[in-house]
Amino acid sequence: MNDRDDVTLVTGGSRGIGRAIVEKILEDGRRVALTFRSDPESVRKLEEIWGDDVRVFPFDLADRERPQSLIHEIETDMGPIGALVNNAGIQRSELTALMSDASWDEVLDINLGGAFRLSREALRVMVGRRRGAIVNIASLSALNGVAGQSAYAASKAGLLAMTRCLAREMGRRNIRVNAVVPGFVATDMTSGLTQDAIDRLRSHECLPDGVTPQDVARVVAFLLSDDAAGITGQALPVDGGVSA
Ligand code: NAD
To answer: Best of 187, 201, 220, 238 to mutate for ligand 1, by most ligand atoms within 8 A of CB?
Structure first.
């Protein structure tokens, strides 16, 4: 499926689940291009820590023009992109009856539109080489109703639908497209939740210790690897058993 020298592109790779994904892919001996949206200084420090196998590139998912130049810059600087992880995303907690059009549009545009636009550009280069893999980071909210998350859940459910369609479109070109479906993971995104809310989200977990960014990262790395050569169009929950 992929060449060991191919680059893995991870969006939002500077913190949280994205950072754990970058670390796991580096540990596996592969090179990573990661994108960041703000705080270039601290991101450049990551380049220093992680060394030559990592390059960082500015990217705002809301920018409709940027994906094309981003893919071109990465390939010019580092070589062929063999894998893409659509990890970056936003979450707003708002009751639907109180939600503005702008808020709905922003969440859908960043989480779903952004992944669509970047996948489109990445696929254009992967198709020519007839190899590649994409993993989309969805969410358990795509499967289970959560009050206050209708826009987020719709964006993640859309990501799962897009995953299945891309798998059908791209399979014959030897490109696999899968999704990972995390449950609750302690990161900046969930840091505003009260302990009560966290307990509620975790109350259906079968396993005792919760899910870490590293747990999600290992599954992403598996789906990108040749160990998953027979898997495409799937959504793999990493949720401590909530969906069991
Ligand atoms: P996080 O907030 O730490 O990371 C989100 C990343 O996305 C950050 O690097 C941020 O800079 C980037 N980002 C946000 N908006 C962006 C934009 N407009 N352009 C470019 N980058 C942007 O949160 P996380 O928990 O690490 O989330 C990573 C992914 O995992 C997200 O897609 C999230 O929806 C998903 N997820 C998280 C949980 C959880 O419980 N933490 C559960 C399910 C799914």
So the answer is: 187
